[in-house]
Amino acid sequence: SARLLERVLLRGPAPRPGIGGLRDALARGRDDPHGALADRPDAPEDLAGFLDRVERALAPLQACVDGGPMPVADMLAGLVEAAEALAGTEDRTGADRLWSGEEGNALGQHLAGLIAFCNILPPQRADVLDGLLAASMAGLVVRSRRALRGRNEAAVHPRIFIWGLMEARLQAVEQVVLGGLVETAWPPATDPGPWMSRPMRARAGLPSPERAIGQAAHDFVACACAAPQVVLSVPGRREGAPAVPARWLVRLEAFLSGRGQSVPAHPALSWLSRLDRPVGAPRPVAPPRPCPPVAWRPRALAVTEIETWMRDPYAIYARRVLGLRRLPDLEEAADAADYGTIVHDALDRWFAMGPEVWAGDPEDGLRRLFLMRLADARLRPALAAWWAPRLARIAGWVAREEAARRADGPPELVRTEQKGRVVLKGFAGGDFTLQGRADRVDLDRQGRLALFDYKTGTLPRRRSVIAGWSSQLVLEAAMMERGGFGPELTGRAGELIYWRLTGGYEPGEALPVASGEELADLVAACWLNLRGLIATYDEVEQPYLSHPYPDEGPRFADYAQLARVAEWSAARDEGGA
């Protein structure tokens, strides 16, 4: 259930804080279009019921948040009660799960002591709890012994201690690691100090600085003989320079060497060398070349996917053949896609109201509709405040642009978010269906058709449209010629127009792509290219390559990690250089 909640409600733009925000997101029916439920547990709890359980578990802590200043000990007690309620399962209580084991014991003792000491503090607001816990736990580390699995979890294991030389002399352990066995560290460099020279120290009866070396040697012998197992550690470099092993370690090695012996190397040294030594010469990874059977290859695509098919065929393979979908990030920042959804939906609703909306004050009405749609989205308040004036400016631009277009009379017919499909025949793999949705289609009183595409982000370059790389709008025109959008919208498009709607300093811009004979030739060439693309991928030997054209790569490479693009593209670039 927790995984289901994460996939459906927490991935993508974050809902507003609190259980209420999660309920709002659930009530809005945040969809699960890409199989987010595919890896759910066998029998997940209904999300609404799961949120009820979470809300009941957090009730003690929520009471602290909703109330005014209160004793810190009471807030900590509410936190503990909520944590135990969240940790409980059907077969184990939350207290048993939280406070058992070494980590649980240490945390329980720490919180118990903190609650006892916090009685002297005045009442505080709940927002101080985070800082209080962070400060009280700073530097606390509990190292768990993995070998305790399956044994008594209450047993306390001998921890790892880092001691100085004086403390080490007083301890008895099973294994000791003597670290930093280099000159100037162990033993330390001799230093008579800034106040007295060596003769002055001798006249004053003070020991010579070299006494520290003898004391360090004594500590070395004491520590080396204090445990059954001793590891002598010498770094290869110290402070960026080659390290010089300690003199007594050198003497020990020389002594053993004269008797045909040596200090045995720790096995970890061989492990390290094996980690650094690859088996055989390194081989650069090759770009993927999947060739699924023709029967597995997609026989229907949207017009928006044709551009992806050309720029990154592997993405079509991963999405349509393997059925993989990009998993949104947790608390993903709202991006242009969310902004574009609001703009498209508001314009769709506005034009669907009919021609009478242009009789009054269209700018005010459209602005109200934009802001209403923004409120329905229930975005974060800061983001909504950032987008509201931009949407208002778009409303003004659309009203002025439409007034100019309607100066010679309103269009005979306006259709928005018009779905369409065309079946292409005559391929080895069978019929192929092209689907699309036109943002807007106008039919004027002279019978001319105009196709509109709303863009709230970057427009495709005209060169890319003419060359066929950005073919969405042109393919929609080709579908319209073949009756893909219904009989009343069948015919040649007289113009293709991009509306760039940013709401910035220039809130909108109308950019025609082509018209007349140029448009007719462009549509014919684009349709011919599509048929050639379908025929090419109906051949069994045709692979779905990843980024086959480096200069015309996709704008969003959702499957670049799966295709390991960073590895083989770097090798390709180096080879090309």
UniProtKB/TrEMBL annotation:
It holds the Pfam family PDDEXK_1. InterPro entries: P-loop_NTPase (IPR027417), PDDEXK_AddAB-type (IPR038726), Restrct_endonuc-II-like (IPR011335). It comes from Gluconacetobacter johannae. It comes from the Bacteria. Residues 301-508 form the PD-(D/E)XK endonuclease-like domain. This is Double-strand break repair protein AddB.
